[in-house]
Every structure is written in C-alpha cells, then in structure tokens.
Design brief:
The chain has eight helices and no strands. The chain has helices spanning 2-8, 11-15, 53-67, 70-78, 83-96, 100-115, 123-130, 166-173. It is globular, with a radius of gyration of 17 Å.
C-alpha cells in the first residue's frame, strides 16, 4: 500500500506519457502536493500479489483515458474548463450525492456558486482536508486550514477528493441548467 501511494505522487513522470494529466499543477499549495488521486479510475482489476505499483497505476490511468474519451475532452474544452477542473468537480459530486438522479443538479449548484463567487461550502471537502468524516461540521471545523476547504477558499478545492464513477463525471460535464445555489440532503435517505 505504501509503495502504491508513493507511486501516485509521481505526477510529473506520468504526465510525460499521459497528456490528459497535463492540467494537474506540479506546484505545492500551502505545503500540499497533488497526486494522481481522481485519475485512478475505480473499476475491477485483476492483479497478482507481486504486481509492481507502477503497473497498477498504469492500468488505472489507462482505464481513466478510456472513460474520459474524446467526446468528453471536446465537451471539457467547449465548457472552457480544464480536465483537472472537471475531475475535481466530479469528485465532489461523487461524495455529495447518493442517487444518480441528483448528480446533475448538485453539479449545477456548485457551478452556480462558483459563477456567483460564493464559496462552495461543501462539507465533504472539509472532511477530506481533516482526514475524517463528520455527519455535521461545527463552525470551528469549517475553518480548518487547507487548500481543500471550500468554506475558507472560493472556487474548487486544490484537487480531487476521491475517485469517482462515470455518472459523476457526466454530471460535471453536463450539469443541469438551474439557478439553484443550495441543495438539502435528507440525512436518512440521502435524497437531495
């Protein structure tokens, strides 16, 4: 596991072979460096126990490139976004929603908040920054210093906060057209 995590830190090395990774910044922000998180596509893979971490990362990146196809790349450009911005948004949508039918509306809310220069105020980005999941954040917790905290930083967090499925990617690329600035989740069902 440790060797795999170390391998995911070699962003510049993988950018040479995967142009789709080119929008990942190589500079640190507040002492935090980016990894390949978000680009390692979650799927079922078959590896033997002695597989090298580089082989695992390569397989996951190859799958990401398959999923993030030319149509998605064109859509990204048409939206005036980078692949990294879409990947970050898809990761937020993934963790903020439980049901596929809620994803496009959630993406719309986040894009609308960015357009209005409002902070995203996504609890899950604070959970990611803090390294623990909290059902309801306290005001003090929302002030946790991190480039991933969307309460204290406007715009998208510094990087993705998870690996997302294709339905979240589609929502980030094709958000609903709404004027919504908020959504409320039912804490029991997860329905938004």
């Amino acid at each position: 596991a440790a060797a795999f995590i170390e391998e995911t830190k070699k962003v510049a090395e993988y950018q040479k072979n995967y142009p789709i990774l080119s929008s990942i910044p190589l500079t640190e922000k507040d002492g935090v460096s980016r990894t390949l998180e978000g680009y390692l596509f979650p799927d079922t893979y078959s590896f033997s126990p002695d597989t090298e971490p580089s082989e695992v990362v390569t397989a996951m990146l190859n799958r990401f490139v398959e999923v993030y196809n030319q149509d998605y790349i064109k859509r990204t450009k048409d939206m005036g976004k980078t692949v990294d911005e879409i990947v970050i948004m898809a990761s937020i949508v993934e963790l903020e929603t439980k049901f596929i039918e809620d994803k496009a509306n959630a993406a719309s809310v986040f894009y609308n908040r960015i357009a209005a220069n409002m902070p995203l105020q996504s609890d899950i980005t604070v959970d990611y920054a803090r390294g623990e999941k909290t059902p309801v954040l306290t005001t003090e917790q929302t002030q946790f210093p991190s480039p991933y905290n969307t309460y204290i930083n406007t715009g998208l967090p510094f990087g993705p906060i998870c690996s997302f499925g294709e339905t979240s990617l589609e929502a980030a690329l094709y958000p609903a057209e709404t004027k919504y600035l908020y959504f409320v989740a039912d804490m029991n069902s997860g329905k938004i």
